[in-house]
Amino acid sequence: MSEAIKAMPKHERMKLPRQEMPVQDPTARGRNYDEVALGFEDETALLEALRCLQCKRPQCVEGCPVGVDIPRFIERVVAGDMPGAARSLKADNNLPAICGRVCPQETQCEAVCVMGKKHEPVAIGRLERYVADWDLAHPSPPPDAPSSSGYKVAVIGCGPAGLTCAGDLARYGHQVTIFESLHAPGGVLIYGIPEFRLPKHIVHAEVDYVRSLGVEIRMDTVIGKIYTLDELLNEQGYDAVFMGTGAGLPMFMHIPGENYNGVYSANEFLTRVNLMKAYLFPDWDTPVKVGKRVAVVGAGNVAMDSARCALRLGADEVHIVYRRSHEEVPARAEEVHHAKEEGIVFDFLTNPIEIYGDEKGWVSGMRCIRMKLGEPDASGRRRPLPIEGSEFDMDMDMVVMALGTRPNPIVFTESGGLERTRWGTVVADEDTGKTTKDRVWAGGDIVTGAATVISAMGAGKRAAADIDRFLHGETVEEGEAEAVAAAG
Amino acid sequence: MYEILAKEDLAPVTKLYDVHAPAVASKAKAGQFVIIRLHEEGERIPLTIADYDRERGTITLVVQEVGKTTMEMGTMQTGDHLASLTGPLGIPSEIENWGTVLCVGGGVGIAPIYPIARDLKEAGNTVISIIGARNKDLLFWEEKMRSISDELIVCTDDGSYGRKALVTIPMKELLESERAIKHIWAIGPAIMMKFCALTTQPFGVPTIVSLNSIMVDGTGMCGACRVEVGGQTRFVCVDGPEFDAHEVDWDQLLARQRIYPDQEKRAVEEWQHDCQCGSN
């Protein structure tokens, strides 16, 4: 890249086209697990970085749930200072290689980018991934450990919220232990999001980075069973607890036939495939049985992931069955686009009402009803209404229910004083994550219900800051800390 | 990593393992289970806790070799380590002083019935126990069961030891007798538990079974273990594993245990093939 291009005036840079992300060929990738989006080359990254106008009051930072200083890291890319770009990015975000891949940028930073008003917004997510991948390929020593505060914090759940909260708390100088119920760290990043969208070596590298900050991760530890919340606070000696256990409980439709073999929750299907690597069976021990004609009910990211996994595992035909229309699809735009390219069939305004099985107890089909959209409901989306007499049957030998998830109640054993909503989510202050229970914070899907990786990370970050304020608040007044410690 | 501190052959394909897991041992209660994984590529399988020793920090697992993972586990020795062990999971047995109780263990189900019978005995119940197996070789823990039972009936299907009968025969006789049995636990293969349920139903005696569904996480996350109980879908891992035997949809449970017969067969074949190649 010549210096002449770098020296381009602003009005010229604005004319540069948004750089396309290179992707694997749709036909080839429909049968492999390699990453779909291949990442920017140096040249395209620089061209894209030049499109950033370095706004004085950047809207994109406001649009980011963790407040990444976007113009600052992009400016370093333009300057050719990749170590500087990486340092800048990681100062704000503990998991940038993940966010660059799975954030819905089109509704966040890129939605408010001023370039988007007359042209296309800057491809912030693609640049974030570019910088984060450069950083993973050029490991640098972790930042110097701060002096120890002497406080111990327990983080429950090793997903995006917990990892972010733990990383920040460690940087503040606190001793942090993450308790994870599964045998591998990462939460939804490891059990939910497939390899082809988020390679697991990226997750491992980001988890290792959090470990390098001094965070201990204990696997196979189900809080609520092996220790309760009260035991962590009162017997295990933790000064504060952050709950980031997500929304792990799958929802079903409660329609007849839902327990036939071949009906999976998306959680089960994706866990078998991603965490347990059923796509490598029998080299790996966990099996999964994928049908020839697969229906995935729902249209969120989890539904797209399920549909695309089924395709890669050999299904002939995969349908997304969704009761609303294309307009209301909650999945990330890129995932819908990729799914369509790969040949996933979308059946909009269609809702299953019964699942049929054969004499062996296996799924054989689905009775559906056509829907139409009525007035907007509480969510602001138009309410889907069944069209009477429009029932029809679909032949299917596998059905995946991707209807959303709720918080898993296991963690609430002996957690007196912790207020919850009627949806089972934890009541927590939006700005701080503080719950109604003394010394307990919460953030991510356990508070909001199923949402995004980045919003969980934002909540983890805000809670870490508030926990830090709380812990230091105790040390300000002499004697108070001892009193609190004695009471604990 | 969780070290195997002791291993014992209980029957030709049934082995006992004492596994070092102090935190789990400190919390384990009768009726609960753990999820284990042998190694990095291993599947997660649920195993009921057959006993625990809080001082030594061990839990006892009794495993019948029925598939690739349990067969491979059978080749592990004292000093080997399990890659993961998660628990104690599920809701513990409801131990109260019911009066006279009946505890029935069939086959490998003798192992999980033991801690329940022991705790019921300690809670002041009169404990009548029945243990049964297809033949003498498959029986184990007779003395252990006798030591915590007021009365023990031993039977085999083929009559090679004890009484020649299915466990449901002495169950029915006891229910017809004057023994005033207030509560029953029956643990064994699903088909045995189904027939135990059918046996006790006419007598209206509450009967608890421990269901052995396919699971992945064991914490309510996947729903693989779901089964209808009393017309409602329940998750065995978090709502059970113990349920009212008279409410379980047995045919659905039996069908859902057979989701992967082809894969199970293939896994065993490939594993046995690899073993033979490896030993040459």
List the keywords.
heterodimer; A: 488 residues; alpha/beta; five-stranded parallel β-sheet; 16 strands; globular; disordered C terminus; B: 280 residues; seven-stranded antiparallel β-sheet; seven-stranded mixed β-sheet; 9 helices
Give an overview in words.
The complex is a heterodimer of chains A (488) and B (280). By secondary structure, chain A is α/β, with parallel strands linked by helices. Chain A has helices spanning 3-6, 10-13, 26-29, 42-50, 59-63, 70-78, 82-92, 96-102, 115-118, 124-137, 160-171, 188-191, 200-212, 229-234, 266-275, 301-312, 333-341, 445-448, 453-476, 480-487, and strands at residues 152-156, 175-179, 216-218, 240-243, 249-250, 263-265, 293-297, 317-321, 345-347, 350-357, 363-376, 382-386, 392-395, 398-401, 405-406, 440-442. Chain A has a five-stranded parallel β-sheet with strand order 3-2-1-4-16. Chain A has a five-stranded parallel β-sheet with strand order 6-14-7-8-9. In chain A, strand 8 (317-321), helix 17 (333-341) and strand 9 form a beta-alpha-beta unit. Chain B is of the alpha/beta class and 280 residues long. Chain B contains nine helices and 16 strands. Chain B has helices at 22-27, 68-74, 110-122, 142-147, 168-176, 190-200, 236-239, 250-256, 261-279; strands at residues 2-11, 14-20, 33-37, 45-53, 58-64, 81-82, 84-89, 100-106, 126-133, 151-156, 163-164, 181-187, 207-210, 226-229, 232-235, 242-244. In chain B, strands 6-1-2-5-4-3-7 form a seven-stranded antiparallel β-sheet. Chain B has a seven-stranded mixed β-sheet with strand order 11-10-9-8-12-13-16, with helices on both faces. In chain B, strands 14-15 form a two-stranded antiparallel sheet. In chain B, helix 5 (168-176) runs parallel beside helix 6 (190-200). Chain A binds chain B through residues 181-183, 219-222, 225-227, 248-250, 252, 254, 258-259, 261-262, 264-265, 267-268, 271-272, 276-277, 280-287, 289, 360-361, 408-410, and chain B through 23-24, 27, 37, 41-44, 68-69, 83-89, 216-217, 219-224, 226-228, 233, 238, 251-252, 255-256, 258-260, 262-264, 266-267, 270-271.
